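Entry 12.
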Amino acid sequence: MTAAEAIWQFTDDRGQLSSAPTWPTRIVAYIQAGATLWDHGLLPLGIFGSYHDGDAPDRAKSGHLPLGAVTYFGAGASLDPDRLLSSGADLVVAVSYGGGHVYGIEPDAAKHLEAQVPVVVLDVGQGRSLDEIRGRFAALAAALGGAEPPVALEAARERLRTVATDDAPRVLALSPAGDGQVHLARPDAWPDLRALAALGVRVVEPPAGGGANWSTVAWPEAAALAPQIILADTRANAAPLDPTRTGNARVIPWNPELPASSAAHAAFFGQVAKALAADH
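Predicted 3D structure (tokens):
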């Protein structure tokens, strides 16, 4: 099929043009992407998870997606590309954390899928701003006939900017690791945390060393940073949060894989603004 023969086309964040002879309606998406498409009025046929996920989709990452109405195809090595193809899927929407690498699907399985069906990959990594990520998903949704209802995103941003004063509470984002350890998020590595900082939120920088996205420390070292608000990872792969570890800090849930929609981002900003106002 040539580009001229294609009914539907979209250029993804790898710069790769995906083409289809018919308008895609049977979409299988990474769970974050599926939740985002649903916020734009598009119900995917199915979803798949990350390498951290198991036999069921992670409810913390699925947003408002009606999980009972979609098929879960597994994640990582458990994802069978032939099972996915046998569902009649006519488009796969995946995410990348940089370099164009498909996340949540084994490389050979991803190649197999791309040989049979269009695969669109959108970058949600630290190289993109939250606005850029949201804009790219909105563009894909529009190309598929979807549109998000009006959301007061700018009002939510302005509310957060108003309460994020120089003496507002300090915010630490983390993911419990078990065994007395905790992963502390590096603000620059996460588009949503960078967005908070840009609006004036005092996001705590963890100690140097360790990985690019996280600094793994013992809980006493995390407590020494004296956060007044903790954004705690609620995804299924995070260890349960021991409330005795958090001191007097207010704990609010944090999903590092928010749906990339105005509704989800406005809700996130509103949640943080509410916590800042309550503790100030």
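Annotation: The two ends are 60 Å apart (CA to CA). The first helix runs from residue 31 to 39.
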